[in-house]
Task: structure prediction
Amino acid sequence: MNQSTKEVLMFDERSPIYRQIADTIRSEVLNGTLRANEQVMSTNQYAAFYRINPATAAKAFAELVEEGVLYKQRGRGMFVSPDAREQLRARHRERFFTDVVDPMVERARSLDIPLEQIITRIEHHRDGDRP
Amino acid sequence: MTPTITISDLHLSYGRTTALDGITLTVNGPRIHGLVGRNGSGKTSLLSVIAGFRQASAGSVELDGQPVFENATALRRLCLIRGSGDSVDHDWPTNRVRHALRLAADLRPNWDDDYAQALVDRFQLDPRQRLTELSTGQRSAVGVVLGLAARAPVTIFDESYLGMDAPSRYAFYDELLTDYMEHPRTVIVSSHLVDEVSRLLESVILLDHGRLLLHEDAEALRGRGAAITGEHGAVAEFVADRTVLRQQHLGRTTSAVVYGELGPTDRDRAAAAGLDVDAVPLQDLFVHLTAGADQ
Result:
């Protein structure tokens, strides 16, 4: 992770910070920024970098180890699991329709946008054209 | 060994004013604890008694089972730095920054001279300058240097950032965090600037009117406040069996701040009732918890 990430990643006070850290690492694995078997920062590096309590960072890492996104190597640190990305993608695929499609349809209805129009738009995407 | 501070039914009165009204609390480490509360809630009084600067009117403060008051052994393991550096020890007005550092070096068994010099540079202090000639911010910075370089097993900063500008305050937070990680110890930080310090904290001690309101894991607290907004009747029904800290009405819309974690079932119920659920920042949660009669 580089300095510019720090500018983008601003934790807020509205939810537990460890959850925000875990979400950040998950999305970095998902979008390929963190690769399989790549080492992640240590708890202390993470804490110093983001000015957070090390116990908070440790809690995020513990959650990710438990999920299987990260694995620990004694004396060396934490690494991204080989199947982390695929595992996260599977989980997001399961939720895609309830999290993304259903709310979109609901919003379209409230705006009186006919479903046909949405389908047409999606077909444009399938043909690889910019709508 | 990691020190444990045990506070039992602590009372402190100044004449007819009650500053601490029965506080029972265990503070252990290695951990960074935040002490928060409104003006006059008893923060400075509590820290003064913990550090042995004041004698309790009733109750006790013990460090690993030993009373702290007039106990030289316990006091060597405790370091309290107060705001604007009034705990910067000096005997006469001609004393300079380097004299304060030398005195601390003599008094503090774990004093790290190299680290103290590095901090002096970082805060751009001049060791030759007279203590009486320092600005409030510079005096605070001297206090921070003394508190960090002392490496006392119990290190207490009571509003130690007074008069410091934002870059100096962040330098303080960075140094506190990195030095704590290299030399884990029990740290208590009292502050009004909750938004600035809250991420450094592992636990939060909230005082109100001389009493302990809560002592909680900071991360647990962050998930504990929620603002419920929607149609008046629906909000009223949803919050009926909850602790409501504050309610506001605007036309037919009501917004209620509730205290207590909302589970997935609660959130589904709120969504089904057409209610918006927003998280509440820690600072706001403290304001609501301690607002009392004047809100």
In short: The interface with chain B takes residues 11-18, 44, 47-48, 50-56, 59 of chain A (CB under 8 Å). Helices of chain A lie at 3-8, 17-30, 43-50, 54-67, 84-110, 115-126. The longest strand of chain A covers residues 70-73.
